[in-house]
Design goal:
The complex is a heterodimer of chains A (about 625) and B (about 220).
Chain A: E1 6-13, H1 19-27, E2 44-50, E3 53-59, H2 71-81, E4 87-93, H3 97-109, E5 114-119, H4 121-127, E6 128-130, H5 132-139, E7 143-145, H6 154-162, H7 177-189, H8 197-205, H9 209-212, H10 217-234, H11 238-257, E8 258-260, H12 267-276, H13 278-314, H14 318-326, H15 330-366, H16 369-382, H17 390-396, H18 400-406, H19 413-426, H20 430-444, H21 446-470, E9 479-481, H22 490-524, H23 528-532, H24 536-542, H25 549-558, H26 560-571, H27 578-590, H28 595-605, H29 607-634
Parallel strand pairs in A: 1-3, 1-4, 4-5, 5-7
Antiparallel strand pairs in A: 2-3, 6-8
Helix pairs in contact in A: 3-11, 5-11, 7-8, 12-13, 13-15, 13-20, 14-15, 15-20, 15-22, 15-26, 17-18, 18-28, 19-21, 19-29, 20-21, 20-27, 21-27, 22-26, 25-26, 27-29, 28-29
Chain B: H1 3-19, H2 26-33, H3 37-49, E1 53-56, E2 60-63, H4 65-88, H5 93-103, H6 109-119, H7 125-129, E3 151-157, H8 162-170, E4 178-184, E5 190-194, E6 197-201, H9 203-206, E7 209-211
Antiparallel strand pairs in B: 1-2, 3-4, 3-7, 4-5, 5-6
Classes of the chains: A alpha/beta (about 625), B alpha+beta (about 220).
The structure holds guanosine-5'-triphosphate.
Chain lengths: ~625, ~220
C-alpha cells in the first residue's frame, strides 16, 4: 500500500450489531453505543493514522438491507455509491450470522470491496464453533473475528484495511432461473453504470428507490414493467423471490461453517421472558419506574447535600472574599450572585443530571428498553405512534436534542411530528428534571415535584391523542429486534454519562459567569426594570412570580439548567416562596425548547412546524403556570 | 372396474365439459379417451348411479355438483404432481404428465397439500381455474392468528402495503424460513424468534406473514 494514502472505509451492519462500539475501538473516538436498535442516526467520522496512511472510518446508521427505501438506508447507499469510499467493513454479529450474511451478500453484489468483521466473537466462542477460513473462502472476502468488547481482532482489522485487504467478491446467490432471466433483461438495457451492472439489475428489480435514481426515467419505466410482469406471472412480487434466495444462500453458508454447541437457556433468557409477558412485564415496568423515581428523589437529595458540603469545603467563601477585595458595590454583588448560582447549579447537575444519565445508561445498555417498547405498543398507538416511539421519549428525559434525532427511527413524518411535539411539551430533559426535583422538590415538597410530573404526563398524552386525531392518519407499524439482556459495563455507562454532561462544565459554567456579570451590570445601571416590566403582566400577573423571573426563563432558552442559576443571581439572596417554586418548576418544564433543540427540530421536521410547536409550548406553559398559581392560592 | 378407471373418466369429462359448456357426447368421450363406445356407456351408467354425472341418452354426459367437485380434486392433484415433477425434479413435461395421470389416483389430499407447499406460491394458469388452489391465503394461518408457542415455516407474504412487505423481507421474514411465536401482548405486537433473532412486530405486520397450512390456528 503506498504510504501517505487516504483510505475511506464505512462500517455497515444491521442495527445493534456493535458498529458504534467497533468504531470507538478502531478510532479511539468515543461515540455513544447502547443496547437497542437505532442508536446511531447520524453518521460519525474519525481518522486513524496507521502505517503511514490515513484511514477515515465512517460509522453509519444500522440497516437490515439496502432495498426498503428508508431514510437511514439512503444514507448508507449514498455512502456505498460514493466513489471516494474505498471499502466496506461489513459488521456482522457472530451470534446471528444468517441475517448479517444476507446484508453482506447484498453489499458484495454491488461489486464493492468488503471485509467482514465478525463481531461479538467473545460471546460466540462460548456457544459455537465457526470455520472462519471456510466462511472467508465461501464469501470470497477476508473475515476477521473481532470483539468490540474485549478488543480482540481490532489490530488485524486495522492492518487488513490499511493493507488493502478488502476484496471485491464474485460470490452471487443461487438465484432462481426466473430471476436470472429478468435480471438479464434489465442488465441488457443498462448503459454504463458506476456499480456492478448485474448487482444493480437485482437492486432495480427489487424496487430499491435510491438505485432507481441512477438510471433514466425511460429505463425506470421498463424496469417497473418487468416487475409488474413478474408479479402477474408468478403471483408474488420479485422482491420476495430475491430476498428468499439471498437468505437461502446465507443460511446455506451458515450451515456449512457454523456448528452450534447445544446450550441451556440462560438466566438472561428466563428473565427476558418475564419482562415481555404482560402479566409479569407490566408490574416489572412499574417497579422499574418507581425505582428510578426513588433513586432520583432520595439519591438526588442525598448527593445534593454532599455536593453543597463539598462546595463549602473546597470553594468556601473564596468568591465572596474575592468580591470584597475588589471593593465597591458592584463586584461583591457579582461574586455573591455567582456564588449562590454555582451552588444552585452544582447541586442540580451533579446529583440529578449526572445520576439520571447513569440510570439512563444502565437502562440503555441492559437491553430492557426494547422490551418496554413491546409492552407499550398498544398504548402508543393511541398517540399515533408505535411502541418504537417510546425510545425517543425516554432519550428525551436525558436531553431533547438526541431525542429529536432519535425520532428518525420512526418512519413517517407524521409520527416524527407527534413524537417531537410530545418531547418538547411533556418530556422534561435532565436539566428540567433536576429543577423539578432539586429546586421545586427540595423547596416546596416532593409531592409537588411528583404533581408536576403527573401534569406533564397528562399534557403529553393529551398532545398525542389530539395530534393523532387531527393529523391525517397514516399506518405505522412496529418491527423491532429485541436484543439479549446483558449486564451493562460500568465503563460504557460512565463514558456515556460523561460525554453527555461534559458540556455543562465547558459551556454552562462560562455562560453562567458572563450572564451573572451582565445581570449585575443591568441592576447596577437600573436597566433591569425597563426590560422586565413590559412582560410583568405574565410573570407577576398570571404566574405570581417576581418580574425578574422572565430573565431567568429567557436564559433557560439558551440552556435549561441556566434558568435556575440565573434566577438565584437575580434574586440576590432572596428566594421564592414554595408556591412560586411550584409554578416556576412547572413553567420551566413546559415552555419553549432550548436553542439546540430548536435547531435540530427545525432541521428535522421543518421550521414551520417547529415554530408552531414552540409557540404552543409557551401558551401551554403559561396556562399551566397560571392554573398552579391560582390553584395553590385556594389551598 | 377400478377407482382409478372411474377417476380417469371423471377427469376427462371435466376436461371436455370445461371448454364445451357442460355436456359431452359419449362418442366424443370415447374418441378422446381412445376406448370403445360400449365401455363408455357402461361406465357412464355406473357413474350416474353413483350420482356423479347426469346422463341423458341423446344429449350426452355432464357432471353433477358432487362429480364436479370430485373431478376437480383429482385434477388438482394431477396438476400438483405435474408441477412438482417439472419444477422441483426437473422431469420432462410429457413424462411428468404421464406419471401424474397414475399418481393422481393414489395420493391422499394431505400429501397433495404438502407437495403443493413445496412448489411454493407461484400460480399459473391452471391454478387460476383451480377450484381449490394451493396456498390460498385464507387457508393458511398467519403470524397473527397462530397461538404463542407455534413453530412453522413461512409460506408467503401478502399485505396491502408494499412497504410493509419490504420491511418484513429485510428483517428476514422470507418464505421458507422457520419462525416461532414467543409471546403476544394482548391484541398488540407479537414477539417472534426467527433464526437467531428475537423480533417484535405488531399485528398489522404479523397478518402479512402467512405460515404453512398445517401450522396450528388459534381457536
Ligand atoms: N459481548 C459483546 N457485546 C458487544 C460487542 N460489540 C458491541 N456489543 C454490545 O452491543 C450493543 C450494541 O452496540 P452498538 O455499538 O450500539 O451497536 P450499533 O451497531 O452501533 O447499533 P445502532 O447504532 O443501533 O445501529 C451494546 O450494548 C454493546 O455493548 C462485542 O464484541 N461483544
Amino acid at each position: 500500500m503506498p504510504s501517505g494514502r487516504d483510505i475511506q472505509v464505512a462500517l455497515i451492519g444491521q442495527p445493534n450489531v456493535g458498529k458504534s462500539s467497533l468504531f470507538t475501538r478502531l478510532t479511539g473516538v468515543g461515540v455513544i453505543s447502547s443496547n437497542y436498535p437505532g442508536t446511531t442516526v447520524e453518521f460519525e467520522e474519525a481518522t486513524v493514522l496507521r502505517g503511514g496512511g490515513r484511514l477515515h472510518v465512517h460509522d453509519l446508521p444500522g440497516t437490515y438491507s439496502l432495498s426498503t427505501n428508508s431514510a437511514d438506508e439512503d444514507v448508507v447507499i449514498d455512502m456505498l455509491l460514493d466513489s471516494e469510499n474505498d471499502a466496506v467493513v461489513l459488521v456482522a454479529d457472530a451470534m446471528n450470522l444468517e441475517s448479517g450474511l444476507a446484508l453482506c451478500i447484498e453489499v458484495m453484489e454491488l461489486g464493492i470491496p468488503v471485509v467482514v468483521a465478525l463481531n461479538r466473537i467473545d460471546v460466540a466462542v462460548r456457544h459455537r464453533q465457526m470455520d472462519i477460513d471456510g466462511l472467508s473462502r465461501e464469501l470470497g472476502v477476508p473475515v476477521i473475528p473481532v470483539s468490540a468488547k474485549t478488543g480482540q481482532g481490532i489490530e488485524e482489522l486495522l492492518d487488513c484495511l490499511v493493507e488493502g485487504g478488502p476484496r471485491v467478491s464474485g460470490y452471487r446467490p443461487d438465484y432462481d432461473d426466473h430471476i436470472i432471466e429478468y435480471a438479464g433483461m434489465v442488465e441488457g438495457m443498462l448503459r454504463d453504470t458506476r456499480v456492478d451492472p448485474s448487482g444493480l439489475s437485482i437492486k432495480l428489480l427489487e424496487g430499491a428507490g435510491r438505485f432507481a435514481e441512477l438510471i433514466t426515467p425511460e429505463e425506470r419505466e421498463r424496469v417497473e414493467a418487468l416487475r409488474e410482469e413478474f408479479l402477474r406471472i408468478h403471483g408474488d412480487s420479485i422482491d420476495i423471490h430475491i430476498a428468499k434466495d439471498r437468505f437461502a444462500a446465507a443460511s446455506g453458508i451458515v450451515d456449512r461453517c457454523v456448528t452450534k454447541t447445544a446450550r441451556k437457556r440462560t438466566r438472561a433468557e428466563v428473565i427476558s421472558d418475564y419482562t415481555i409477558t404482560p402479566s409479569t412485564g407490566i408490574p416489572i415496568l412499574a417497579l422499574v419506574i418507581l425505582g428510578i423515581l426513588a433513586v432520583i428523589i432520595y439519591g438526588g437529595s442525598w448527593i445534593s447535600g454532599l455536593v453543597e458540603e463539598a462546595y463549602g469545603l473546597i470553594v468556601g467563601d473564596i468568591l465572596l472574599d474575592f468580591g470584597e477585595s475588589l471593593g465597591g458595590d458592584f463586584w461583591p454583588a457579582v461574586m455573591s450572585g455567582l456564588n449562590e448560582s454555582f451552588i444552585g447549579i452544582l447541586t442540580l447537575v451533579i446529583p440529578y443530571i449526572m445520576v439520571f444519565y447513569i440510570i439512563l445508561g444502565i437502562l440503555e445498555d441492559t437491553g430492557y428498553l426494547p422490551r418496554v417498547v413491546v409492552l407499550l405498543d398498544s398504548l402508543m398507538h393511541r398517540f399515533g405512534l408505535h411502541g418504537g416511539g417510546f425510545i425517543p421519549l425516554i432519550v428525551g428525559l436525558g436531553c431533547n436534542v438526541p431525542a429529536v434525532l432519535a425520532t428518525r427511527s420512526l418512519s413517517s413524518r407524521r409520527e416524527r411530528l407527534i413524537a417531537c411535539c410530545m418531547i418538547v411539551l411533556a418530556v422534561p430533559c435532565s436539566a428540567q428534571i433536576a429543577i423539578i426535583f432539586g429546586a421545586t422538590g427540595a423547596e416546596a415538597g416532593i409531592q409537588y415535584a411528583l404533581l408536576i410530573m403527573g401534569v406533564l404526563l397528562v399534557i403529553g398524552m393529551a398532545a398525542g391523542l389530539l395530534l393523532n386525531r387531527k393529523l391525517p392518519s397514516e399506518p405505522s407499524s412496529l418491527a423491532m429486534e429485541i436484543p439479549d439482556l446483558t449486564v451493562p459495563q460500568a465503563k460504557n455507562v460512565l463514558f456515556k454519562m460523561w460525554s453527555r454532561t461534559k458540556d455543562f462544565f465547558s459551556i454552562a459554567v462560562p455562560l453562567l459567569i458572563v450572564g451573572g456579570v451582565v445581570i449585575e451590570l443591568l441592576i447596577a445601571y437600573n436597566l433591569l426594570d425597563p426590560i422586565v416590566q413590559p412582560l410583568s403582566f405574565i410573570t407577576e400577573g398570571l404566574l405570581g412570580l417576581p418580574a425578574v423571573a422572565i430573565v431567568a426563563l429567557l436564559m433557560g432558552i439558551i440552556r435549561k439548567e441556566m434558568a435556575y442559576a440565573i434566577l438565584l443571581v437575580l434574586l440576590g439572596g432572596a428566594t421564592l416562596t414554595p408556591d412560586q417554586f411550584v409554578v416556576f418548576g412547572a413553567v420551566m418544564a413546559i415552555y419553549m425548547p432550548c436553542l439546540a433543540t430548536l435547531a435540530v427540530m427545525g432541521r428535522e421536521i421543518g421550521w414551520k412546524d417547529t415554530a408552531v410547536v414552540a409557540l404552543s409550548s409557551i401558551v401551554v406553559a403559561i396556562l399551566v403556570g397560571t392554573a398552579f398559581n391560582y390553584g395553590l392560592r385556594l389551598f | 372396474m377400478t377407482t382409478g378407471n372411474r377417476e380417469d373418466y371423471l377427469i376427462n369429462i371435466l376436461r371436455l365439459t370445461d371448454s364445451k359448456g357442460g355436456v359431452v357426447r359419449t362418442s366424443e368421450l370415447a374418441a378422446f379417451m381412445d376406448v370403445a363406445p360400449a365401455s363408455v356407456t357402461e361406465m357412464v351408467r355406473a357413474l350416474s348411479e353413483a350420482g356423479l354425472v347426469d346422463y341423458q341418452k341423446y344429449k350426452g354426459v355432464s357432471l353433477t355438483d358432487a362429480g364436479r367437485e370430485y373431478a376437480m380434486n383429482i385434477r388438482r392433484k394431477h396438476h400438483i404432481v405435474e408441477r412438482f415433477l417439472t419444477d422441483v425434479l426437473d422431469v420432462d413435461h410429457d413424462e411428468a404428465h404421464e406419471e401424474a395421470c397414475r399418481i393422481e389416483h393414489s395420493m391422499s389430499d394431505n400429501t397433495a397439500n404438502k407437495f403443493c407447499r413445496i412448489i411454493g406460491t407461484r400460480q399459473d394458469h391452471d391454478c387460476a381455474t383451480c377450484g381449490d388452489p394451493c396456498n390460498r391465503d385464507e387457508d393458511c394461518p398467519t403470524l397473527e392468528t397462530v397461538e404463542p408457542g407455534t413453530k412453522a415455516r413461512i409460506s408467503h407474504l401478502r399485505g396491502d402495503s408494499a412497504s410493509n412487505v419490504k420491511k418484513l423481507l429485510s428483517m428476514g421474514f422470507v418464505p421458507g424460513r422457520e419462525v416461532s411465536v414467543v409471546s403476544r401482548i394482548g391484541n398488540g405486537p407479537c414477539v417472534l424468534s426467527l433464526g437467531e433473532s428475537t423480533i417484535a412486530i405488531d399485528s398489522e405486520l404479523a397478518s402479512a406473514v402467512y405460515l404453512d397450512c398445517d401450522a396450528g390456528t388459534a381457536q
